[in-house]
């Protein structure tokens, strides 16, 4: 006996909309974190960690990677969570707070640490609401 998974067109459409929104938000968040890093650097804040400089584009690349992981989390929760929006918001807020821990302990100046944390918060402020709006309450 075999079983076939039946996915309704509404489910596929919702996932597609979620992914589309997520990709646009990821691009926006990546650009925003690069802008924050560039502005901080222009204001005299070092982008060096342990003596090695972080390129401004590195902020964008890492933001894109982790933002797309967030899209995957949202897609999985939309399929399996009883309350996807609430679960997503709680999960991503906790992950955002945890993402600040390495910034606190990294070998860098105080201003650099603050700038790194700001980029995490900027990305989260863009990604979390954009994806949460697409999830069922």
What topology does this entry show?
Layout: H1 9-42, E1 48-49, E2 52-53, H2 56-80, H3 84-105, H4 110-133
Pfam families: DUF6069 (PF19545)
Protein name: Cell envelope biogenesis protein OmpA
Organism: Plantactinospora alkalitolerans
Describe the structure.
- InterPro entries: DUF6069.
- The protein has helices at residues 9-42, 56-80, 84-105, 110-133, and strands spanning 48-49, 52-53.
- The protein has a two-stranded antiparallel sheet with strand order 1-2.
- With 137 residues, it is an all-alpha fold.
**Proportion of strand residues:** under 5%
Question: Number of domains in the coordinates?
Answer: 1
User: Which secondary-structure class do the elements indicate?
Assistant: mainly alpha
Tell me about the largest β-sheet.
Answer: 2 strands, antiparallel
Number of strands: 2
Give the overall shape, derived from the CA principal axes.
Answer: elongated
Q: Roughly what percent helix?
A: over 70%
Short description:
The chain crosses the membrane at residues 12-39, 59-81, 88-108, 114-132. The chain is mostly helical and 137 residues long. The protein has helices at 9-42, 56-80, 84-105, 110-133; strands at residues 48-49, 52-53.
